[in-house]
Design brief:
Elements (H helix, E strand, L loop, with lengths): L2 E3 L2 E3 L7 E2 L5 E5 L4 E9 L3 E5 L14 E5 L3 E5 L4 H4 L5 E7 L4 E9 L8
Parallel strand pairs: 1-4, 2-10
Antiparallel strand pairs: 3-10, 4-9, 5-8, 5-10, 6-7, 6-9
Amino acid sequence: MAIVDLTVVKFGSSPVYTVLNQTDTFLMANDGLTKLYVENNTNQALTATVIEQRSCNYGHATTHFTFYCPASVITYLGTFRKDRYNRVDGKLAATFTIPGTGTARAAGVYDVPEDGRI
């Protein structure tokens, strides 16, 4: 099990994808405006799990955020709250379950706020 950093680019730039596997944990720098792009080029849906680091402010149990990414499409996940999902290094951690055959990849894309947006 390795730790793999995903590259984060600004929206409008070409995403820099990293090939996914089921054994590694993938880290992505997260400022609360960053989205996780999952390109699933397999023949089955895959599961992406974003690891929650702290419970929410409303007292709900700590649960990981699980997404189902259909086959043969790019799924855009996020944004993710920094106070719940970031590790102490400012990155969120994600794992993937990939049941199909083919290649799945992921990238981080920073969604730049529009002018005047708070």
